[in-house]
Amino acid sequence: MKPASSIGWRATAAALIALGLAHGAAAETITVTHWGAAFYGAPYAVAMQKGFFKQRGVDITGVLTSTGGGTSVRNTLAGDLPYGEVALPAAIEAIRAGQPLKIVCAGAESIADILWIASIGANLTAVLSGAIDAGMTGEPVWSQERSKVKPVFWTKDVLPPDMTQTVGIVTDELAKAGPEKIRAIIAGRREGVKYIEAHPDEAADIVAQTYNIDPALTREVFRHFLDIKYWSEGALNYAAMDRMVEGLKIVGKLKEPIDWQKVTDVSFLPRDLQARTH
Fold first, then answer.
1. Are the CB atoms for 56 and 95 separated by under 8 Å?
2. Residue 239 and residue 12: Cα distance in Å, rounded?
3. Closest of 190, 197, 200, 170 to residue 235, by C-alpha
4. pLDDT at 2 over 60
5. Which H, E and C letters describe the chain, residue by residue?
6. 32 partner at 20 to 30 Å CA-CA among 153, 182, 188, 208?
């Protein structure tokens, strides 16, 4: 079994393949950023294992991944089922560049997992080797290596933690041709989030097996993520999205505000989540 530290924040270029069809649906592949490394994809792994997608008539059996950013968006555009969970900044950049995409749901909606660490004596390897005094890290590195390092500060200590990290996107073509598939994916992922909340240890074991990482470590990570309400059920939180936009402005990646009404489509969300979008 690979240790989590060997995975780090790198994505594995692997697809999860399962057998069988449900309700006559063909097996299909979606895109999830950092699949197999970071935990944005946990609800999808649980939903696939528990059959939540199949129950809704869409058979998601494979996940394309990348190291994030624009590559995740390009994978989404090129996929046989052009749905992807990608970083919000990457989605914004692609839409502003003219890509025919819409944001349809929220994914990870907290940055409370991010912190800066320093060596107890004096990115993890650099801190431990003394090359830098402090560096940014997150899960699962924090839970795995916390005995070797100490936190300098948590992002949540200096910023509001409600900041949208990832969102679900679809192509305009899929929005027109396959609205029921989009609804099924969003609903199945939501069920995955609920299952994690109700059965955290079992869900952690599913993800650990899917990602090929340590189950005990994954259980610890899940406890942390549930404490900080890491996974959104899907309702868009425009204030949390605006906070990410403000960050992009600070680093010079964006100058003007985003009109969310033009780049989002909440019609694929369950009605109660549409009502919770604000």
1. no
2. 32
3. 190
4. no
5. CCCHHHHCCCCCCCCCCCCCCECCECEEEEEECCCCCCCCCHHHHHHHHHCCCHHHCCEEEEEECCCCCHHHHHHHHHCCCCEEEEEHHHHHHHHHCCCCEEEEEECECCCCCCEEEEECCCCHHHHHHCCCCEEEECCCHHHHHCCCEEEEEEHHHHCCCCCCCEEEEEEHHHHHHCHHHHHHHHHHHHHHHHHHHHCHHHHHHHHHHHHCCCHHHHHHHHHHHHHCCCECCCCCCHHHHHHHHHHHHHCCCCCCCCCHHHHECHHHCCHHHHHHCC
6. 153
| More confident call, 189 vs 122 | 189
Q: Looking at residue 4, what is its pLDDT?
A: 39
The amino acid sitting at 227 is D
Q: What value, to the nearest 5°, has the Cα angle with vertex 109 and ends 60 and 155?
A: 135
What is the reported pLDDT for 25? 53
Q: What is the pLDDT of residues 48-89, one digit of tens each?
A: 999 999 999 999 999 998 776 788 899 898 888 999 999 999
* Structure tokens given for 145: 């290596």
């059959």: which residue's tokens?
51
Q: Cα–Cα distances in Å, from 67 out to 8, 83, 107, 243, 252?
A: 11, 17, 17, 23, 22
Residues 194-240 have pLDDT tens digits of 999 999 999 999 999 999 999 999 999 999 999 999 999 999 999 99
The strand order across the sheet containing 149-154 reads 134-137, 115-119, 149-154
Closest to 100 measured CA to CA, from 71, 77, 72: 77
What pTM was estimated for this model as a whole?
Answer: 0.84
Residue with tokens 């394309």: 64
Which residue is associated with the tokens 């680093």? 251
